[in-house]
Design brief:
single chain; alpha+beta; Aminopeptidase; three-stranded antiparallel β-sheet; 2 helices; 3 strands; 34% strand
Length: 83
């Protein structure tokens, strides 16, 4: 997301809409998200949307051609919408 759009709640709202669609329409039981350990803005967006950090993995990242640590976040469907 471009700098001029960061910090305005756009990503948080987009994630909220995707969560509601995934749980209400697709009837998924859980959603997982991987985020690099140094990507603090994305970590914050996930945590604001009630994702819970479950583990950390070190995997090969083909775009950077190296191994990188990622955090795994999970959100379980509790049959309640985000407001």
């Amino acid at each position: 997301m471009g700098k001029q759009y960061q910090g305005k709640g756009i990503a948080t709202e987009c994630i909220k809409l995707a969560i509601n669609y995934a749980f209400d329409i697709l009837e998924l039981e859980e959603i997982s998200a991987y985020v690099f350990t140094d990507n603090n803005p994305s970590i914050r967006v996930l945590e604001k949307n009630r994702f819970v950090k479950t583990s950390e993995v070190n995997e090969y990242h083909p775009l950077s051609h190296r191994y990188r640590n990622s955090l795994i976040y999970i959100l379980k469907n509790k049959n309640n919408k985000l407001n």
